Amino acid sequence: MFFGNSLTAGLGVEPEEAFPALVGQKIDSAGLGYTVVNAGLSGETTAGGRSRVGWVLRQPVDVFVLELGGNDGLRGLPLTDTRRNLQAIIDTVRRISPQTQIVLAGMQIPPNLGADYATQFKQTYIDLARENKLVLIPFLLEGVGGVAKLNQPDGIHPTPAGHRLIARTVWDILQPLLKQPVATKAL
Questions:
Q1: Do residues 37 and 102 lie in contact, with contact meaning Cβ atoms separated by under 8 Å?
Q2: pLDDT band at residue 144, thresholds of 50, 70 and 90?
Q3: Got the DSSP string for 87-99?
Q4: What's the rounded Cα separation, in Å, for the pair 167 and 176?
Q5: Which pairing describes strands 34-35 and 185-186: parallel, antiparallel, or unpaired?
Q6: Active site residues
Q7: pLDDT, tens digit, for every residue of 5-60?
Q8: Residues linked to residue 186 through DSSP beta bridges, in sequence order
Q9: How deeply is 8 buried, as exposed, middle or buried, from its count of CB atoms within 10 A (0-12, 13-18, 19+)?
Q10: How far apart are CA 126 and CA 118, in angstroms?
Q11: 24 Cβ neighbours under 8 A, 6+ residues apart
Q12: Residues 39, 1 contacting (CB under 8 angstroms)
């Protein structure tokens, strides 16, 4: 399950062009037998994710990719709130589905809110992954963020080509976690 915001939802691209669908294609090609669920919601903050995570976990999930926080950072929300909400999501996943492997997608923001805020924002993901023993995607938008030709005119949401690069980044982290082959399971 990919649980995130507009990046996960694929805002501005066709659903099959968004990185979760592209990762699903890689899973299918490898014959791994997982079903990808895109639980991305445009505009979602960590607080919103915290309030809906229990609802999306009504089905068994083997791997939970947590991609939230970018909207918090762009809005300059207090990092203590972002961290608390992300931790609550992690705790909820572990409580409802203790066997689920959690992957945290790291995010970075431009320094327009100050270099200290941007540095601490990035560090939040590193710290949460370490403290919770999570698999970390260091920066979801690696090679895509800030590259004009890989982003839509808003400079935030990736183009189909950007989503293909994100899918490669995510696949490099996910592939070792997925058992081969398995009966159809939810990712």
A1: no
A2: very high
A3: HHHHHHHHHH-TT
A4: 15
A5: parallel
A6: 6, 154, 157
A7: 999 999 999 999 999 999 999 999 999 999 999 999 999 999 999 999 999 999 88
A8: 35
A9: buried
A10: 13
A11: 34, 35, 36, 187
A12: yes
Which of 164 and 111 is assigned the larger pLDDT?
164
Residue 101 neighbours by CB distance under 10 Å: 17
Separation CA 139–CA 60 (nearest Å) = 27
Do 32 and 179 touch, CB atoms closer than 8 A?
A: yes
Residue that is written with structure tokens 């990092």 in the block = 79
**Cβ atoms of 8 and 2 closer than 8 Å:** yes
Ramachandran category for residue 146: left, alpha or beta (phi over 0 → left; psi -120 to 50 → alpha):
left
Find out whether 95 and 105 touch, Cβ atoms under 8 Å.
no
And the tokens for 35?
């079903």
Which residues is 151 bridged to in the sheet?
Answer: 158
What lies within 8 Å, CB to CB, of 55 at 6+ separation is: none
List Cβ neighbours of 68 (8 Å cut-off, separation of 6 or more).
3, 4, 5, 44, 45, 46, 49, 85, 86, 89
Residues 86-110 have a mean pLDDT of 97
Residue 117 and residue 159 in contact, taking contact as beta carbons nearer than 8 Å = no
Token output for 181: 């082959």
pTM of the full predicted structure? 0.94
Q: How far apart are CA 111 and CA 139, in angstroms?
A: 16
